[in-house]
Design goal:
5-stranded antiparallel sheet, 3-stranded antiparallel sheet, 44% strand, globular
Length: 134
Amino acid sequence: MRFFIPVLSAAAFVCSTMSSTHAARIENRVAVFSGIDKISGRIHTFDVYINETVKFGQLELTPRVCYSRAVTEEPKTTSFLEVNEITLDRRIKRIFTGWMFAESPGLNAIEHPVNDVWLVSCKQTSDIPPPPTN
């Protein structure tokens, strides 16, 4: 019983220091996704600018934000994403709205009968030119 109290107070100290040293998130301009075409078996990696909509197979992806941390911090890469499916009768159906986590790709990856998509990383620039602004 004597050892339990010091261990508990040490654990409380560690938890309080961890919450006070919160790493600053970096807001990025580009989200990087990978997707698999299940028919061909090919994996594609592609960049998408924030608030740009791109088509991957029957899916339309629109990232709204993409956050990362400095390279000196523990990785935590997240993106808020909206995904629509274009059905065979050309209707647009929202199939996902939520957060994706690059460090846990299976947690909120888009699983579709033909195309799966998951977040890989975020970055500030891309080799692909940004979409035109209106």
